[in-house]
Amino acid sequence: MAKGRNDMELRPNPRTGRYRLISANWKMNLNHLEAIQAVQKLSFLLRPADYSYVEISIHPPFTDLRPLQLLIDSDQMRFRLGAQNCHFEPSGAFTGEISAPMLAKLNVSHVIIGHSERRQYFCETDEIVRAKVEAVFRSQMTPIVCVGETLQEREQGSTEARLRSQVEAALSFLAPELAERCVVAYEPIWAIGTGVSAKPSDAQAGASIIRNVFDSFWGNEVARKVRIQYGGSVNPTNAAEFMELDDIDGLLVGTAALDPDSFARIIQA
Ligand code: PGA
Fold this sequence. Notes:
Bound molecules: 2-phosphoglycolic acid
Shape: globular
Structural class: alpha/beta
Number of strands: 8
CATH architecture of the domain at 31-38 and 113-269: Alpha-Beta Barrel
């Protein structure tokens, strides 16, 4: 991982050797003025020790990126700037799209790719997700690749097959040195935005399936390094139990990350 001024004190989890990562996915919420206020408040609420325990990425809408870049930079805040999506081509006639090099130029370090809302509402296929992962790596950023089963798939007992096929389609082309730098977010679709999170045992089971897929493609060394987040109705009350799980290295937080108070409490949990 690149070491910058802002993460000098970041320590890996002694149990796993992996760096923890908690990410705020704001989705289509908070305009640039609200974004500045939210990040200032979050920075005020966190203690220096919080940053040594966990890397924190904030994924606002595109229009907030430039103001937040300036704020984070000028106040030397220890947040990673993230994006929620990008196009897979570096430039061209794609009206309304934003490319990975444009994000990298704004010091964006992490890009969420293949969120279930993008797959569902914007017809993102596994091939598109794969191309976007490639684009993110080409611009030296880290993809946070979202995978997860629907309620129906879960009830049919096909969770494992679904996770395996999503990881395979999105990532199997990667060389081991890139595969180990991926972050995979296990987000059961039935748990997103519903207020009903997965049970810790379900989150662990999903994460363990994902780590096993990495093992089968790239071997144990890579599987031990890849970071896996849980996402889906994370809140200050349930965050700690997910963070304690063997195969969970972080959280992808939607609703509860919009309020700086509750996001700070998640980080401190
Ligand atoms: P949620 O969203 O925390 O509101 O369930 C999570 C996500 O979609 O990443």
